[in-house]
Design a protein that fits this description.
eleven-stranded mixed sheet, alpha+beta, about 300 residues, single chain
Length: about 300
């Protein structure tokens, strides 16, 4: 029988590489839950625990309370009890926050909870495929002339992020949000990335070529000792198909070299399952699938 501890492991983004010791990944995941609020529902002689947090950045940006549900812990087989518990949890959230948007990123392995949340009218708004490369010592991808993004690049990269929209990402696919607000969110995200939200922001640096594309990454050095493995993450990208055609593969490849030189042993990233061209690019560069997750959302008025 699959235990909740085993499922908890798949909630961690670091489970993308199965070579990383499972107990270390689970331990890190459990520690991360310490910063969340916990609603304990005592129902039918058992306990169901909900770990959640109010995302203040998204709340301020969209003007509606944004609740992120991280994990549901329980030890019961009766799906009806779990369904009733979910209703009680949602009532608790409404008492605390009123109008809100509730989101959870849930691994495919937690199919029981996916079904229960669907019954509670959570909507599937995005499916993510997570890829990784842990064979970096053999990496021999293309090289490109790049540089670190500067403050002077912000306005242009905000334009690129907004113009090169992905209609299948979390905010653009969710009909609770207006397209214009989703565009503005991504524009603000790249601005914050350059201002320190991510560790690295890379842009093209070729003569007579506008820097109309970018790729961000987090080194995650604070996790290296915790996981006993040097793992880093590529986060967000956008490439102008008009002026920087072909630069997506160059940015991914060059960032792979850079993170490898810094000391990464594994690099991972994710995209929407609909983004077939990107998935093919990663495969050509030696990246492999390691994890699948779904974004479920419920808008409460």
């Amino acid at each position: 029988m699959v235990t909740r501890k085993e499922i908890l492991y798949r909630y961690s983004e670091y489970s993308v590489n199965h070579r990383i010791e499972k107990d270390l990944v689970v331990g890190d995941m459990l520690k991360s839950l310490n910063g969340y609020k916990v609603f304990v529902d005592n129902i039918s002689g058992t306990r169901v625990k909900y770990y959640y947090v109010l995302n203040t950045w998204e709340t301020d940006f969209f003007g509606i309370n944004s609740v992120f549900l991280r994990f549901i812990d329980f030890d019961l087989e009766d799906i009806n009890i779990l369904q009733e518990s979910i209703k009680r949890f949602l009532r608790k959230l409404y008492e605390d926050y009123g109008k809100q948007n509730i989101t959870i990123e849930i691994p495919s392995e937690d199919n029981k909870v996916i079904q229960v949340l669907n019954c509670a009218k959570f909507r599937l708004i995005e499916t993510r495929i997570h890829f990784y490369n842990s064979n970096l010592e053999c990496y021999n991808g293309v090289r490109a002339n790049v540089r670190v993004a500067k403050q002077a690049d912000i306005e242009n990269l905000k334009r690129v992020a907004s113009f090169m929209r992905n209609n299948y990402d979390r905010f653009h696919s969710d009909f609770s949000f207006k397209k214009a607000d989703a565009d503005r969110y991504l524009s603000t995200y790249i601005e914050n990335s350059i201002n320190g939200f991510t560790d690295l922001v890379m842009v093209p640096n070729e003569p007579n070529l506008p820097s109309d594309s970018f790729l961000t990454a987090n080194i995650l050095r604070d996790k290296w000792a915790v996981l006993n493995h040097n793992i880093s993450k590529m986060v967000l990208s956008a490439v102008s198909s008009e002026t920087n055609k072909g630069w997506y593969v160059k940015l991914i490849s060059e960032m792979t070299y850079l993170l490898k030189e810094i000391g990464a042993e594994t690099i991972f990233m994710n995209t929407q399952s609909t983004n077939i061209a990107v998935l093919h690019t990663w495969e050509k560069l030696g990246y492999h699938i390691g994890r699948t997750t779904h974004i479920l959302s419920k808008h409460v008025e």
